[in-house]
Amino acid sequence: MNQTLDELGWRPFFDAQISSHDDAGCHPVRVMAVHRGKIAVAGAGSTHLIQPYIPDAAEADDHPTVGDWLLIEDTTLQIRRILQRENLFKRRAPGKDQKTQLIAANVDTLFIVASCNQDFSAPRLERYLVLAREVGVQPVVVLTKTDLTDTPDDFAAAARHLQADLLVEMVDARDADSVARLAAWCGKGATVALLGSSGVGKSTLVNTLRGSNNIATQAIRKGDDTGRHTTTVREMHRLDQGGWLLDTPGMRELQLTDAAAGLAEVFDDIVNMAQHCRFANCAHNVEPGCAIQTAIADGSLAPARLDRWRRLVTEETYNSASLAERRALDRIAGAAGSKRK
């Protein structure tokens, strides 16, 4: 790989963080892939496979992830520090602990990939949209496998209904001419991340955008259109248009954390309605003067959307709480469950 920093996505935001005095003997590189125990990085005309170890790293955010810009020492290649990120995608890792899993950094556009079959899920798309809006990255919903349905426009309408002005593109991931409509987001130095569940055609889309078949693909399961995990590492791929495509393993579980602002933006219709309730502490159930219940009654708000908003708010609140706060919430939930019995 032989490229300039600009071609890798370097911009004034990162350049302003380099000190000619304090950072002598170091040079910037970008994390191109994350493997077990090693990370692949690329700089101006050079590539390396280095240890991800940072001596002073304590929190999860202090560790490098794909898309990061690092300052490494010229001779030892040891990481001096991670440059401040323009944005960072992360999630609560599966399990009961409070570990955070970093997904990608310094992304310009997020392609949210969904397929036009049984695996299409509005709730899942909303989760990805919350994630994008929280970090201020432009989301584009990319609908694949349009050949599997006679009504692809119905899937597009369902996606657009999730948020006003949402960009939705329908493509045949195997057809270069169809995928070419995504080129506007893939110019020189631009970074596009791909998110979506397994089996929606992400790897096929990557291959078509790159004009190669280097990324392995697998067929979906016929019974329920569920896919298998194909991508196993987070990795950046060079595109013909000069940009970078950041592929991630399909995620079966995306727990939201620290995403209150993203929730408010994706569900701004409900948030705005709630401001017109008679009581500030309205629970939006049976309280008099509830604007949300009025909207449900007149058909302007679907009960399913309200239910999804409630679940995501509850989940985000729980995941963002401290360990002590979560234990208290668990006790409250346990007591409520006992009373219902």
UniProtKB/TrEMBL annotation:
CP-type G domain location: 96-254
This protein's record includes keyword Transmembrane: no
One Gene Ontology term from the biological process aspect of the record: ribosomal small subunit biogenesis
Main location: cytoplasm
UniProt-listed InterPro entries: G_CP_dom (IPR030378), P-loop_NTPase (IPR027417), Ribosome_biogen_GTPase_RsgA (IPR004881), RsgA_GTPase_dom (IPR010914)
Superkingdom of the organism of origin: Bacteria
Annotated compartments: Cytoplasm
Keyword Nucleotide-binding: yes
EC numbers: 3.6.1.-
A single GO cellular-component term on record: cytoplasm
GO molecular function: GTP binding; GTPase activity; metal ion binding; rRNA binding
Domain annotation EngC GTPase: ranges: 105-252
Cofactor: Zn(2+)
Co-factor binding comment: Binds 1 zinc ion per subunit.
SUPFAM superfamilies: P-loop containing nucleoside triphosphate hydrolases
Residues at which GTP binds: T144, K145, T146, D147, G196, S197, S198, G199, V200, G201, K202, S203, T204
Key words of the record: Cytoplasm, GTP-binding, Hydrolase, Metal-binding, Nucleotide-binding, Ribosome biogenesis, RNA-binding, rRNA-binding, Zinc
Residues reported to bind Zn(2+): C277, C282, H284, C290
SUBUNIT field: Monomer. Associates with 30S ribosomal subunit, binds 16S rRNA.
Function (record text): One of several proteins that assist in the late maturation steps of the functional core of the 30S ribosomal subunit. Helps release RbfA from mature subunits. May play a role in the assembly of ribosomal proteins into the subunit. Circularly permuted GTPase that catalyzes slow GTP hydrolysis, GTPase activity is stimulated by the 30S ribosomal subunit.
HAMAP family per record: GTPase_RsgA
Protein family (similarity comment): Belongs to the TRAFAC class YlqF/YawG GTPase family. RsgA subfamily.
Name the UniProt record assigns to this protein: Small ribosomal subunit biogenesis GTPase RsgA
